[in-house]
């Protein structure tokens, strides 16, 4: 097992480096490799347009994709572990829906009441949308944490989370009904997800926040391994089940809240990557799965971002469409192969 883990980890790291470079190299504007290297080295001999494309667009987009993919993948693994449900993902407790509801208030409600949606106010609108998404997601997460103190079963908490998500979706539907067509379009575009929204100081803050949260999530590895044993065994080993569940949900929820605030609701990565890593490593040990999932999530997000803005496309495809198109066949194949091996 140990002999298998290290080569896969090294391949994932190498894959991330290659995909990061390709994200800088490929796009609607063709830039030679030499110009990219010179720009990254701080040379002033490259044209200002090229430097702006690299530093203002491609580097922030690649960093955002890498960090967001890692956060969503780790969050998905945590949710699948705490609920022991292979279909659990970052959005299972309605946290993504809470972020969407916060943005709906900024984009749709402000336009209906004030005549001009905050989302149309340039930089101020972008900040308002990010803050609203964080507030909405944290509000739902606070409610979930409160409920987790009152209920014992994971299934009950899962159902309550799904119902909260449906309730948020219903409120969003009402807001859409009373909103202008232009505001609805702006909200729908945000809901498609994008790694290109984050730039400048926003990108720096996003990367710093995730660079703090992702290592902190590694502190829960032992707790998650104990949760895999079942409540009875874990309790006998001294684990406070209710507190452990709350810690994992809190960590996962904060990761989802921040990624959704900056990138929109990015689907599928958090659901698919943990399954892919279990198949790759053939292990349920979170000492292996957590770093493996983090790296695989970053690599998949970089690949999807690369596909979304391949040369020949006008602009960029919706990230959510690409994540589903790329990931669904891979995960279906992994699960089918696992099912065949079990039967044999």
Describe the structure.
This protein has 344 residues and is mainly alpha-helical. It is built from 14 helices and no strands. Helix 4 crosses helix 5, helix 4 (95-114) packs across helix 11 and helix 5 (123-150) runs antiparallel to helix 11 (241-263). It starts with a helix and ends with a helix. The model has no long low-confidence stretch (mean pLDDT 82).
In terms of topology, how is this protein built?
Blueprint: H1 2-25, H2 33-40, H3 48-83, H4 95-114, H5 123-150, H6 154-177, H7 181-191, H8 200-217, H9 221-228, H10 231-236, H11 241-263, H12 269-281, H13 286-308, H14 319-343
Properties at a glance:
single chain, 344 residues, mainly alpha, 14 helices, 78% helix
Helix % is over 70%
* Number of helical stretches of at least 4 residues: 14
Order of helices and strands: HHHHHHHHHHHHHH
Beta-strand content estimate: under 5%
Radius of gyration: 21 Å
Short recap of the structure:
By secondary structure, the chain is mainly alpha-helical. The chain has helices at residues 2-25, 33-40, 48-83, 95-114, 123-150, 154-177, 181-191, 200-217, 221-228, 231-236, 241-263, 269-281, 286-308, 319-343.
């Amino acid at each position: 097992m140990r002999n298998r883990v290290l080569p896969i980890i090294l391949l994932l790291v190498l894959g991330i480096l290659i995909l990061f470079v390709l994200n800088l190299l490929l796009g609607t504007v063709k830039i030679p490799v030499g110009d990219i290297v010179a720009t990254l080295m701080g040379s002033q001999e490259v044209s200002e347009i090229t430097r702006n494309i690299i530093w203002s667009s491609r580097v922030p987009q690649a960093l955002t994709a890498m960090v967001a993919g890692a956060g969503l993948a780790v969050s998905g693994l945590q949710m699948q572990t705490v609920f022991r449900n292979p279909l659990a993902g970052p959005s299972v407790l309605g946290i993504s829906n809470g972020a969407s509801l916060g943005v709906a208030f900024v984009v749709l409600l402000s336009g209906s009441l004030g005549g001009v949606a905050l989302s149309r106010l340039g930089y101020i609108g972008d900040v308002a949308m990010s803050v609203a998404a964080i507030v909405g997601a944290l509000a739902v997460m606070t409610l979930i944490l409160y409920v987790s103190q009152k209920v014992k079963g994971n299934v009950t908490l899962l159902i309550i989370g799904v119902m909260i998500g449906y309730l948020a979706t219903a409120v969003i539907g009402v807001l859409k009904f009373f909103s202008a067509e232009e505001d609805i379009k702006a909200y729908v575009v945000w809901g498609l997800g994008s790694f290109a929204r984050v730039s400048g100081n926003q990108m720096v803050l996003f990367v710093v926040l995730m660079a703090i949260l992702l290592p902190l999530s590694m502190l829960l590895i032992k707790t998650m391994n104990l949760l895999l044993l079942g409540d009875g065994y874990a309790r006998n080993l001294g684990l406070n089940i209710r507190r452990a569940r709350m810690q994992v949900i809190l960590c996962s929820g904060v990761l989802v809240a921040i990624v959704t605030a900056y990138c929109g609701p990015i689907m599928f990565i958090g659901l698919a990557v943990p399954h892919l890593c279990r198949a790759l490593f053939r292990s349920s040990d979170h000492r292996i799965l957590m770093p493996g999932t983090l790296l695989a999530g970053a690599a998949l997000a970089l690949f999807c971002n690369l596909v979304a803005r391949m040369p020949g496309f006008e602009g960029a495809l919706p990230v959510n469409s690409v994540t589903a198109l790329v990931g669904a066949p891979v995960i279906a194949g992994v699960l089918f192969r696992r099912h065949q091996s079990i039967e044999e």
